[in-house]
Design a protein that fits this description.
Radius of gyration: 13 Å
Low-confidence stretches: none
Mean pLDDT: 95
Order of helices and strands: EEEEEEEEEEE
Helix content: under 10%
Oligomer: single chain
Number of strands: 11
Shape: globular
Distance between the termini: 40 Å
Length: about 130
């Protein structure tokens, strides 16, 4: 079974940057669309960004557009989420998730479409 491992979380001041990584072992991510989701205490899980298996389709939630960038390096079997200009509202546990669904338009940020999930990495933005 596909296992995903997130890394790169931490504590950063407002305006700072972090790069999250989502890696898989034993199975290639080449055939999976990957989504990043986050969940803050007391809030529902929210889709942040996704990238199709080819990398040709990318989507972002409005609140992170212009600040976050998703990318994938299939040679390293890793998907990244570069987060710049971080705000306190970005504080949450961030999860990566995978699906074999082939999106024929922008990839969809709906958690119910993603079958495999990592354990999450904490991002805290605080002064």
């Amino acid at each position: 079974q596909l296992q995903l491992v997130e890394s790169g979380g931490g504590v950063v001041q407002p305006g700072g940057s972090l790069r999250l990584s989502c890696a898989a072992s034993e199975f290639t991510l080449d055939y999976y669309a990957i989504g990043w989701f986050r969940q803050a205490p007391g809030k529902e899980r929210e889709g942040v960004s996704c990238i199709s298996s080819s990398g040709g389709s990318i989507n972002y939630v409005d609140s992170v557009k212009g600040r976050f960038t998703i990318s994938r390096d299939n040679a390293k079997n890793t998907v990244y989420l570069q987060m710049n200009s971080l705000k306190t509202a970005d504080s949450a546990v961030y999860y990566c998730a995978a699906t074999k669904i082939r999106f024929f338009g922008p990839c969809v940020l709906s958690s119910r479409l993603y079958n495999y999930w990592g354990q999450g990495t904490q991002v805290t933005v605080s002064s």
